[in-house]
Amino acid sequence: MKVGDLVKVGPCFEGKLDCECFFCEHDSNRVGIVMEDDRMSAAEEGYRCGWWVLFDCGEWEIFPSDLENGDVEVIHEAG
Question: Which of 30, 31, 60, 65 has the smallest set of CB atoms within 10 Å of its CB?
């Protein structure tokens, strides 16, 4: 994943009622654009390990494990 890519976060567990996740709480379309690659940026607690993505409801950090698990997919790569 790289800056400028469009990504889509998968749906929450089907049948789960009253989901309180970031995306459900904001009624998001779950599509976002990668704004920053923070995988090696220093932070107070050590190193960050993800990408900052801007969604219709705000910024959220996506981690490599989210891609590996299939919870997030790249739907359009930046040219």
Answer: 65
Query: Could you please report the per-residue DSSP string of 6-65?
Result: EEEEPPPPTT--S--SHHHHTT---EEEEEEE-TT-EETTEE--SEEEEETTEEEEE-HH
In Å, the largest CA–CA distance within the chain is 39
pTM across the whole model: 0.83
Q: Phi/psi of residue 32, each to 5°? A: -145, 170
Residue range 1-54, pLDDT digits in tens: 999 999 999 988 766 667 888 999 999 999 999 999 887 666 666 666 889 999
